[in-house]
Amino acid sequence: MAESENSNSVRQPLNVDAEPLKLSELLDRGWKIFEEVDSTNEPLGSNSIQVKVKRGVQMLEEASRMVAQLDLFSRNEELEEIATADLKYLLLPALLGALTMKQTTRDKRLEIVQTARAYFMDFLRRCDEYKVSPFKLPDSTGEKSFPGPTNLVAMAAQRQAKIERYRQKKELEAKLSDVRRAVETGQADDEVTRDFYLLNVRRWVAVCLEDIESIDQEVEILKKMDMFKENAPKQPTHPPRPPMKPFILTKDAVQVSCSRLHVTVIHCDTSQSICPLFISEWSFFIGLWNVMFMQFY
Predict the structure, then answer these.
(1) Do 79 and 107 share a domain, yes or no?
(2) Do 120 and 220 fall within a single domain?
(3) Pairing with 261, which of 69, 112, 273, 294 sits 20 to 30 Å away (CA)?
(4) What is the pLDDT along the chain (297 residues), one digit of tens a residue?
(5) Domain co-membership, 129 together with 273
(6) Is the domain of 172 the same as that of 223?
(7) How far apart are CA 209 and CA 197, in angstroms?
């Protein structure tokens, strides 16, 4: 009996760990991982952070599949009809997109930002259907022309929209800080809890709109970089140059040059066909000629 009890006590933790996480646990843990990664001082490309990002993405993806299977949201219902406990699951696509943007694989950067944009657009479409907050839904393709320097009206409108979103986000964050403590400590009633999740959803609307603008600009740059790499001319490979040979003056060349200058050349052995004179020796004869020239003139 004692032996069987010991074996059960060992196996029990393994069975607990093997149990799949509940939907609320998947969302809460994935959300917590994002907040930890977003506020960490460690390099984003470090192995420990990337492992945490991957684990958070997997949890949120599993939670999204469970939400789809449970069919928690419908286009035929209003925002007020969603249960308070289910409101937080509206954040799943936004958190997935934000965690996806934390991945740092350079050769897959274009794929990463496009995947994150798809998550953000999914979140914004659902918020637009439920009329969570007034905003203009971005273009689904992302292929839009940015206003040039001459289109001052469009530039001013974009700037004003960014300022307004920033102001709204700061107001929502200030309200969130007031109700967060009550929700985290479990002292909030249903009304406060509902307000807390709605404030989070509206804040993430502003965040996703900003991130989509940044992604569209980055995608345009990444595509141009890929085109530049494909069309870049290949530099031809030059064969290695042979080493330079030392400069040598032969006996005959020295005699001809010096005979014109009335200079006697040092006699070389006639048995040799070539009498090599290096540059230092040739400089001696040039100096001698200069001295004789100065004496005559």
Answers:
(1) yes
(2) yes
(3) 273
(4) 434 334 343 333 334 455 889 999 999 999 999 999 999 999 999 999 999 999 999 999 999 999 999 999 988 899 999 999 999 999 999 999 999 999 998 889 999 999 999 999 999 999 999 999 988 899 887 665 555 555 777 777 778 778 888 888 888 888 888 888 888 887 889 999 999 999 999 999 999 999 999 999 999 998 888 787 777 666 666 677 777 666 554 555 545 454 444 444 444 444 444 455 555 555 655 665 565 555 545
(5) no
(6) yes
(7) 19
Please report whether residue 177 resides in a domain.
yes
CATH number of the domain encompassing residue 179: 1.25.40.540
Paired tokens of 230: 């494909």
200: containing domain: 18-144+158-231
What local confidence, expressed as pLDDT, does residue 274 receive? 46
**What 3-state class would DSSP assign to 277?**
strand
Q: What SS3 class is residue 158?
A: helix
128 and 79 in one domain? Answer: yes
> Domain check: are 258 and 122 in the same one?
no
3-state secondary structure of 150: coil
In a domain, 133, yes or no: yes
Q: Which run of H or E residues covers position 122?
A: helix 109-129
**Greatest alpha-carbon span in the chain:** 128
Q: How many domains does the chain have?
A: 2
Say if CB 92 and CB 70 are below 8 A apart: no
Question: Do 270 and 225 have their domain in common?
Answer: no
- 214 & 184 share domain: yes
Are the CB atoms for 199 and 176 separated by under 8 Å? yes
What is the rounded CA–CA span in Å between residue 122 and residue 116?
10
Contact 30, 60 (CB under 8 A): yes
Neighbours of 204 (CB within 10 A): 25
Length of the chain as a residue count: 297
